[in-house]
Amino acid sequence: MNEHFWNTDIKFLQGIGPKRAEILKNEVNILTFEDLLYYFPYKYIDKTKFHKISEVHSEMPYIQIRGEILRFRTEGEGKKERLIATFGDETGIIELVWFKGIKIIKQLYKINEIYIIFGKPNEFNGNINIPHPEVEEISKNQENKENLSLQPAYNTTEKMKNFSITSKTIAKWQLFLRQYIEKNIFETLPEYLIQNLKLISLKEALLNIHFPANFEMLQKSEYRLKFEELFYIQLKILRQKTHRSKQIRGFVFSKIGEIFNTFFHTHLPFELTEAQKKVLKEIRKDVGSGKQMNRLLQGDVGSGKTLVALMSCLMALDNGFQAAIMAPTEILALQHFATIQKFLGEMPVKIGLLTGSTTKKERRIIFEELESGNLNILVGTHALIEESVAFKNLGIVVIDEQHRFGVAQRAALWKKNEGTPPHIIVMTATPIPRTLAMTLYGDLDISVIDQLPPGRKPIKTVHYFDIHRLRAFEFIRKQIEAGNQAYVVYPLIKESEKLDYKNLEEGYENVLKAFPPPKYSISIVHGQMKAAGKDIEMQKFISGKSQILVATTVIEVGVDVPNANVMLIESAERFGLSQLHQLRGRVGRGAEQSFCILMTSVKLGSDTRKRMEMMVQSSNGFEISEMDLKLRGPGDLEGTQQSGMPMQFKLANLAKDGQILQQARDIASQVLDSDPDFSKNSENFLLKKQLEKLFSHKTEWGKIG
Ligand code: ADP
Ligand code: MG
Asked: Given the CA of residue 455, which atom of ligand 1 is nearest to it?
């Protein structure tokens, strides 16, 4: 690419000037010729085919019909006046409607002449019409047909439109730029890749992405550009991964020793699932290899990740190292601490708990024992990564529900040792779609627990409208009478914390009314409570002293109370799919049949309705996360914002382009295998140059474990 030319300020393009350049910059981040060239259409308007009036319905996108205007009439008066044309072809009639420019339209178009109209069908009072269609005479249309077959449509904002920058304006500018492509665009992929993969050249792709010669060329252009986008990201990620494994040595846990074996043979209360065994083997292999492990542990809610984490820590202990487990909330850290204590029983393993509410005195003791090596496993929250926390020899770190932690926090853990970094396992709350994992965690090895412990009954999920809340309460009452417990959860979204708190308070009052003391006891936990208060309320519920826990989403992650078998989620429409699944995963942990009640208002958008249906139908976290990705797009999924990884691509879409992504990753990996430094094959120099261009200014998001 001729950098000099393409870096030209956009204001110098014919017809733009400083004022519109300012708008382009602020509204859509177009600063240079290159930015404009890479501002791709979001759709194409198909003028290659004609529809029959009899087949038109209101769900159709823009369509084209050939026919004649049979008559005009006007309806309404003053501002409400509109012109209606009855338009017919051999299959039927449809109405065309104009609210503006009535006089001109009437003069312009003649009755009983053949026209081609183009527009978006609409439904109004049960009739289908087309408002403000484009109308073309047949002769003109035939002339233009060749190059107008697929018209690009560009996104514009209100502000842009105010400055007369419409989709058509942008198309016009693209036409100007088009003439410079031939001379000023240079290939960005090595020739051998283009040959082997049968890609079209960058030039052809850029020409056809804006003005496709036909459908086939459009597809080829999209493919080429998507591949390139994904390929360079994978190349970047995989290169980092190979560099890291070459440069950084890991601790060798050479043996499985007494601690692990004692636990396995005499303390483990149940058989490990095959999936847990498989994952432990993968971890065992990593930590014995001499390379530093960076592993993502995926598994559905309740699949038993905690136990795998604990047993991995025991491997470290057996080899004279310490271990740390970090959780995103205090409640969860507490629970891990208690769980691990219970699992280990009277085994000679010293466990510590460090959170924001650990007292100064307790801290001092913990710090001393950490440095002397007396303390074997430290469980905690963010408090673990403070600088003052120093280990004697930290061998392994487990980060639970890792999407809650930002990159910087993970990187800080990495540096807990001088010299050799600890082995790292990150665990996710909810499965991540494969494509997302490949990008978001592309530099990690992935283990999957794809099996639940035996004997779990699938949770029955129902969707209730909130007008039927009392019925849901009745149901809960029966469950409580049978000795079970229930959660009632309210949304908590940062922006409206006050409002949510009000919802929670009102909800709590409602629950109290329906379940009055002293017959019932109700716990309440929310984000504005002090840690000690939360702890008391949680303990009441965990020990079974209270039958209902009213909470905000602070309980979303990890909490494990097997006796609770009903999860009632209020305002379920305000949660994403993954979050709903995660919440639902709080029940279904005991022997009893469990239930999840999704409560929403009656008025629901179609996406929300789909989410509720999906939840009712599926209890598979992997399925649900794929669906979530499709509905919300990758940019909105939890964890992607903090990741710093580019999730919004120009063309590629992680929800749809899984195959291209896989291919891009495979090819990137092959290239790196054969020429890791881009020095053997002269054509690969281009790869190095492109990587520098694409990523030099971005933050170092990859340097984490
Ligand atoms: P998650 O993967 O969601 O973190 P947990 O680790 O909290 O799941 O495990 C869920 C529950 O399943 C816990 O009560 C745990 O003790 C239990 N569990 C774990 N592994 C097994 C197993 N192999 N057999 C039976 N129960 C198990
Ligand atoms: Mg867990």
From this structure: 25
